Amino acid sequence: MEKYEALLAQMTLEQKVALVSGRDFWHTVSVAEIGLESMRFSDGPSGVRGEAFDERKPSLSLPSASALSATWNRELAGRYGQAAASEAIDKQVDALLGPTINLHRSPLGGRHFEAYSEDPVLTGEISAAYVRGVQSLGVSACPKHYISNDSETDRHTVDAIVDEKTLHELYLRPFQITIEKSNPWMIMSSYNKVNGHFMHASPLLDDPLRRKWSFEGVVVSDWTAVRSVESAASEQDLAMPGPFTPWNESLAAEIRAGRIAEEALDRKVLRTLKLADRVGKLGTETVKSPVPVSTRESLALEVATEGAVLLKNNGVLPLSGGTSVAISGDSAKRTRYQGGGSAQVLTKPVASPLDAISERADVSYAIGAEVVNGCVTYSEKQMTNPRTGGPGVAITFKDASGKVVRSDERFGTFLIFDSEPGFEPAKLEVEFDLDVSDADKPDYAMGVGTANRFELWVDDEKILERDEYVVYHDLAEAILQPREEGIKFELNGRKQLRVKAIIFDPGIKEAYNTMSVMVGEVARNDDPEDLIARAVAEAKESEVAVVVVGTNSAVESEGFDRETITLPGHQEELVRAVAAVNQNTVVVVNAGSPVDMPWRDDVAAILVTWFGGQYAAEALGAVLFGDAEPAGRLPTSWVMSDEGSPLSTTPIAGKLHYTEGLDIGYRALAVSGKEVDFPIGAGIGYGKWSIGFAEMSSDQTRVVATLNNSSEISSKGLAMVFASKSDSKFVRPKEWLVGFARTESVVGETEVLVDMDTDYLKVFEGGEWVLEPGDYQLRVTLNFAESGKLLTLSV
Ligand code: BGC
């Protein structure tokens, strides 16, 4: 720290205050006098957006967190971190705002797709591997959101009431494991309160974070979370985004008046200088070496296949090439390959499941049920720019007098315009001009999403307008999910439409003078019975039916929770109707979190592909046709609504009580004795696995087990070890995960070694972790539901 202290001594109070507040949305300030450059931060956990949300500088979309954790593969998570860091390096990003390591407390949590598991050990192990991967390339990771931001309802104000033991054994645990095993250079504090204290000023930032865990990195606030100057006395280091933060406004005056100690500020500055040094922004010339783009792309494909979970297969999969396949489902064409909110990135054009299956089989397609809710923006190939005659859209900015101040040619229709020196889009009027060609339909549905006033014109006719601004309370929602409105109109034989969307000034202040607009197709709301009947007719004629079901951005996204785990729209009816006419019905689930599957006994196969990232479709094609194994296992128990009700995420009088204590997910199942079809670890791949024997190594540091794949298809197994302690004098979960290991892809018998970390046997009692002596029962199993082999570990 001496080096940083010398630099600190050269800084003025104003420079120090400015450093701990952002310069703008994504940067810290530079201080030339001490050789400090500005640092750039960027979301997010599954791809790197970079400074601009701009399709001309596309990002690689990696499979979402729940797909990564479904691989149960630390080594893969490490390479995933390196791929993410490489994207960051290409976009001159110094710190990645991820991974998200809140827990899957309830399947209703809106950002479930962005987090790893209901289990703290699986979450912590995958997260630590990811962070090591990111930081090995000189980019900072930033595990988030510390703490108890396990759901989204009222996330800016909710007070999570969690007892100390539960907090430490469940929700703090992944952060602790990540810090111990990977030393992240940053973490992000959350918006919410825990036990009465806002997290940006919580005592939990001091203890356990700084004191017990010796975390010496930077705590950055979630965006706009810092709300008071008093919070500067806490262990929060950096208030983002800047520059309009309460610290920037009055911290210098508070310090001068003696109301806040300057040492508190100095601690923040020292840690921020250290971060800058680590990422090469403090006078050190650092050369960062990204992994090649081709390696990142194949990693994205590998995670999507390894994380796909085959929950059921009566033998219909893998399919043979050339089979006749009736495909249905909105998500087969308009797949969701990433979740909504700050995790979103803009990618190169992405293939659909329909494209991927069509390459290998003789297919027909019927939508069957509409899922889309909100604008589906146009891809480059769907539109023509009238100004250039080439693909894309013409964008024109005009000032209040109607004078054109800037013109852009763009290639997507979800655009976010940030302020730049000399250019304030939120004070301008912006026009989208495009020609959209459409197939033979009698009518068409399209709309606009924005917080601003707008008009939508088609072929010189104004078809829709909004004359008021939408007021938002959530920054991410205002920018990334602006309210959309749409309309259906007759095409009257037209095959090409000239579309003009005019968005009026001013932008919303809350969104930092950013203007965000989407133009695209909206749900057509066609007759549901008719849609199903058409899909059924196709399914009857084919050897196999593939129904791709999923969630949409209106139900599964950042900023709000789901109200139900039921699939949106008429998808359940679609699956039942198709399954009734085709006994080879394969259901592909395109969702980041558990969905209800009341039709699970009626179908031949169920494959969960999550939000599989940019190569989700290619991965699906590969696993359906057996070129790769869907090797994933559920990282979180999927409890159907006929098997139990999800924990509520709705606060009561501003408080969300975690009254279930330690019993979430499989821990609750262990207590209730309830058997569910798809608990944590469920997934069968293409092998046929059993456990041969299992024993403790003589030094008791690992479990040695043999797993046998008796099928003829090469497959990857997973061994999980759950512990229990029936004679414990402490309150404990009935069973809890203490280790796991994957095999290579093999036929026949193979050995796995599962490390036993005695830290994972500890309980949090009386303010500290305690390793209770005595015998622990271990169950070595293929998934939570299998009985497995029993062993004893003595401490
Ligand atoms: C999210 C964070 C994200 C930040 C910056 C917030 O709304 O909760 O996860 O990193 O925005 O985009």
Which SSEs are present, and which pair or pack?
Elements: H1 2-9, H2 13-19, E1 41-42, H3 65-69, H4 74-90, E2 95-96, H5 120-135, E3 159-161, H6 164-171, H7 173-182, E4 186-189, E5 193-194, E6 197-198, H8 206-210, E7 218-221, H9 246-256, H10 262-278, H11 293-307, E8 309-313, E9 324-328, H12 330-333, H13 353-358, E10 362-366, E11 376-377, E12 383-384, E13 393-398, E14 404-410, E15 414-417, E16 429-437, E17 443-450, E18 454-458, E19 461-466, H14 475-480, E20 484-490, E21 496-503, E22 515-521, H15 528-540, E23 544-550, H16 571-581, E24 585-590, E25 605-608, H17 616-624, E26 655-657, H18 665-672, E27 689-696, E28 702-709, E29 715-724, E30 736-746, E31 748-755, E32 763-765, E33 768-770, E34 775-781, E35 789-794
Parallel strand pairs: 1-2, 3-5, 3-26, 4-7, 9-10, 9-23, 23-24, 24-25
Antiparallel strand pairs: 5-6, 8-25, 11-22, 12-16, 13-14, 13-16, 15-22, 16-21, 17-20, 17-22, 18-19, 18-21, 27-28, 28-31, 29-30, 29-34, 32-33, 34-35
Helix pairs in contact: 2-9, 4-5, 4-11, 5-7, 11-17, 15-16
The structure holds beta-D-glucopyranose.
